[in-house]
Amino acid sequence: MDLKDLYQEIILDHGKNPRNLKKSDNFNKDAKGHNPLCGDKVHIYLKVDENNKISDIAFEGSGCAISMASASIMTDLMKEKKEIEVKELVDDFLEMIKQNPELKSKILGENEKTKLMSLSGVKKYPMRVKCATMAWHTLTAAMKNANEETNTDKFE
Question: For residue 153, is it within any domain?
């Protein structure tokens, strides 16, 4: 199996069987995101402990396979991460989606990097970049406990 096929398999798996797709119990931070271009919606729920570590993360939403897979992969990767690690991973992911060929973060293991890199192909399709990044921007808003909806029209 070549890398392109592996990436496609990961996206299809997470798109059809999203992980952490539920309303989290006892969340203490949350945010909603919307991509008006295609109608994708996401609501991120976080349980952040006193050490600023995500002890639980989940999402509700609907949208295309790319947005659902991205939210699923993101929630898998962010569990048990501290706020500073979350910021590093979000920044690294957004740079990879827009321009960098690889992830720079040393936080993730090889399997986790492979999962995240599966979304790298969307940079070839500018209209799909917002689908892949919506949940990530919404996670950033949730960490700040922002009370306004994250709208992908505000991001490049």
Answer: no
pLDDT (tens digit, 9 = 90+) per residue, 76-133?
999 999 999 999 999 999 999 988 888 998 999 999 999 999 999 999 888 899 999 9
Cα-Cα-Cα-Cα dihedral sign, residues 91, 137, 3, 79: positive
Contacts by residues 94-103 (CB-CB < 8 Å, ≥ 24 positions apart): 94/133, 94/136, 96/120, 97/122, 97/123, 97/129, 97/132, 97/133, 98/123, 98/129, 98/156, 99/123
Q: What is the CATH number of the domain that holds 87?
A: 3.90.1010.10
Does residue 108 form part of some domain?
yes
Q: Domain for residue 149, yes or no?
A: no
Residue 128 lies in a domain: yes
User: Residue 51 — φ and ψ, nearest 5°?
Assistant: -95, 15
Q: Which residues pair with 52 in a beta bridge?
A: none
Domain hosting 114: range is: 3-144
Rounded to whole angstroms, the Cα distance separating 150 from 136 reads 10
Question: What pTM value is reported for the model?
Answer: 0.93
